[in-house]
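testing teh design pipeline on a random one, pls ignore if ur not involved
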């Protein structure tokens, strides 16, 4: 995990930094001074989350980023944002996709605080695998605004959790935590924006969702729960598409592949808590993070529902 910080009131320095941090761009300002720009980035190799604060009005013109670039506006406005045939303005609370990864874009930022989350476009296809087999093109967004306020709020929550985790070294260094959140982010983008993905199972999916495929998937999860596996990995092990895999788990187990993976990891966390030595200084948070649970409160709720007591109680019992 990488962390990057920038703070400058020199416009030329800001432009040079933005060229390095994003893509080749030209920026300009309406004011001769007071051009302070601040950025803090937390990143992995496939996703990055930036918090930016621009204390001035800045025009921008950006070459294609090659990544999906989501923007959440906290304060201020982004005006005359344009790519292709689209032109739009964004204000506080808005969540948008700046442009398709292959297109340039331009616009104007007026004294804004905002978040930029960038992700590898391949994550959508990896998580979804929802395009028909006869069309191997990757999944693409077909709109720059979410299709509903509820979907937008859910995705904003995922982005906020991702930023929190990446900013905490103890969590960001846990591969299972980062992989889980990255998959949640990609799934959240698919759920929030209109895409080329075909989400309903086809006749082939139903035919392929046999118990044998499910058994292969379950065996793979059971054997690899301690590794940073993805839905695409599970589908490949089961010799089916991700959409078929999702349908098989819903049909036969009334859950999802990630839901089943979470249950298996919860079992491992329970075992580790039961066998841990409280005098060694081990904590519930450490055990939870080791098995991909990045939110202590949610882990505690899942644990209590499964075992009828809190994880802290299990750990303390070892001292008796």
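output:
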């Amino acid at each position: 995990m990488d962390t990057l910080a920038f703070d400058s009131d020199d416009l030329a320095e800001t432009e040079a930094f933005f060229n390095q941090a994003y893509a080749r761009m030209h920026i300009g300002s309406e004011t001769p001074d007071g051009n302070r720009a601040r950025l803090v980035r937390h990143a992995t190799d496939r996703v990055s989350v930036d918090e930016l604060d621009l204390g001035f009005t800045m025009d921008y013109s950006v070459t294609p980023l090659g990544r999906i670039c989501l923007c959440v506006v906290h304060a201020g406005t982004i005006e005359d944002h344009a790519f292709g045939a689209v032109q739009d303005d964004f204000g506080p609370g808005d969540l948008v996709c700046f442009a398709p990864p292959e297109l340039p874009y331009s616009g104007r930022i007026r004294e804004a605080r905002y978040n930029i989350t960038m992700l590898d476009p391949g994550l959508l296809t990896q998580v979804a695998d929802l395009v028909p087999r006869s069309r191997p093109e990757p999944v693409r967004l077909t709109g720059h605004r979410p299709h509903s306020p509820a979907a937008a709020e859910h995705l904003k929550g995922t982005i906020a959790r991702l930023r929190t985790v990446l900013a905490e070294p103890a969590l960001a260094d846990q591969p299972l935590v980062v992989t889980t959140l990255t998959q949640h982010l990609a799934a959240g983008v698919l759920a929030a924006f209109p895409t080329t993905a075909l989400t309903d199972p086809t006749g082939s999916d139903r035919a392929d969702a046999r118990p044998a495929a499910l058994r292969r998937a379950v065996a793979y999860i059971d054997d690899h729960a301690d590794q940073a596996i993805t839905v695409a990995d599970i589908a490949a092990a089961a010799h089916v598409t991700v959409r078929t895999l999702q349908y098989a788990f819903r049909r036969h187990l009334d859950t999802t592949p990630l839901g089943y993976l979470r249950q298996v990891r919860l079992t491992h966390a329970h075992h580790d808590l039961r066998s841990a030595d409280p005098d060694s200084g081990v904590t519930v948070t450490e055990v939870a993070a080791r098995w991909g649970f990045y939110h202590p409160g949610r882990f505690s709720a899942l644990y209590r529902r499964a075992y009828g007591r809190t994880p802290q109680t299990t750990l303390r019992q070892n001292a008796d």
